[in-house]
Write a structure and sequence with these properties.
This protein is an all-alpha fold. It has one domain (3-272). It is 84% helix and 0% strand. It is built from ten helices and no strands. The protein has helices spanning 3-18, 20-47, 53-84, 87-92, 98-128, 137-164, 168-193, 200-209, 212-223, 232-272. It starts with a helix and ends with a helix. The model has no long low-confidence stretch (mean pLDDT 81).
């Protein structure tokens, strides 16, 4: 990693870590993670069982929805705000390629977001420690890794939206609308067209890969070995078609692509646009 990338990443990390709204959302994530963990622990203890299964399942949706929104808004607001204030123009006037600027911004903002999410998961894991077992280490790692991957994809997409938007408000509005579409509208749209349009196996695969939130959710559930109705129709199809290892590899590659491709789009935008 070049010195310019490290410097930009460090600057963005400090800015992201000090942002009041991201601290507030991080505190909300920690409280929600602790709350759903306590509720799930109640059922575990009432049944006299051990393990993090019910608690981990309760954390999956939380770990997909809120971090993705945080990543989108953080990157969209930060990069577009720096352009509006002239800081991005000043930075690109230096002998630094746009690709390195985008990479530094991504690493810094993703790092600050991961640190914030780590506090929430730390609280949840502390509460889970009395019932956790040795075999729970891998499911916990997959759950946290899926959350971090979805958050990173949100940062990358937010950066791309900011790079192509004219103003900060436009970038934030687009990021919010995209999150609503992915979190709520996507499934509703599929349910609406399902009676008239036969997607088929290939269509189901495309549906999963086009939604990083769904990909992250299924990946976390597969890592926790939660099958059946918890996976939903898309997850059940992937499991039957590719097996557990193949489905995990495909979903992980999809989330990586959701981070890499938007960063390339952001680099292209900064290279071509007149800031």
């Amino acid at each position: 990693m070049s010195g310019a990338v490290r410097a930009i990443a460090g600057w963005e990390f400090r800015l992201g870590a000090r942002a009041r709204w991201i601290l507030a959302m991080g505190a909300a994530f920690a409280l929600l993670a602790g709350g759903v963990t306590l509720l799930a622990l109640g059922s575990v203890r009432s049944l006299g069982s051990t393990g993090i299964g019910p608690s981990g399942a309760a954390l999956v949706n939380l770990g997909v929805l809120l971090p993705s929104l945080m990543g989108l808004l953080l990157a969209a607001g930060s990069l577009a705000g720096e352009r509006d204030h002239g800081m991005l123009t000043l930075l690109l006037a230096q002998p630094v390629r746009p690709g390195r600027v985008v990479l530094g911004v991504f690493l810094g903002l993703a790092g600050s977001l991961w640190a914030t999410l780590g506090i929430g998961y730390g609280l949840a894991l502390l509460l889970l420690s009395p019932v956790a077992r040795g075999q729970d280490v891998l499911p916990i790692a997959v759950l946290v890794g899926s959350t971090f991957a979805v958050a990173a994809a949100g940062v990358a997409v937010g950066a791309a939206l900011a790079a192509w938007s004219r103003r900060r408000l436009q970038a934030v509005a687009l990021a919010t609308a995209l999150w609503i579409a992915l979190a709520l509208g996507f499934d509703l749209a599929i349910a609406a067209i399902a009676p008239t349009v036969h997607l088929g196996p290939g269509g189901l695969l495309v549906v999963v890969l086009l939604n990083p939130l769904e990909a992250g959710r299924i990946l976390a559930l597969l890592g926790m070995e939660l099958e059946g109705t918890a996976l939903g129709p898309f997850g059940a199809y992937l499991l039957a078609r590719f097996g557990t290892v193949g489905a995990v590899g495909l979903l992980a590659a999809d989330l990586i692509a959701w981070a890499v491709v938007p960063l390339g789009v952001a680099t292209l935008a900064l290279s071509r646009r007149d800031l």
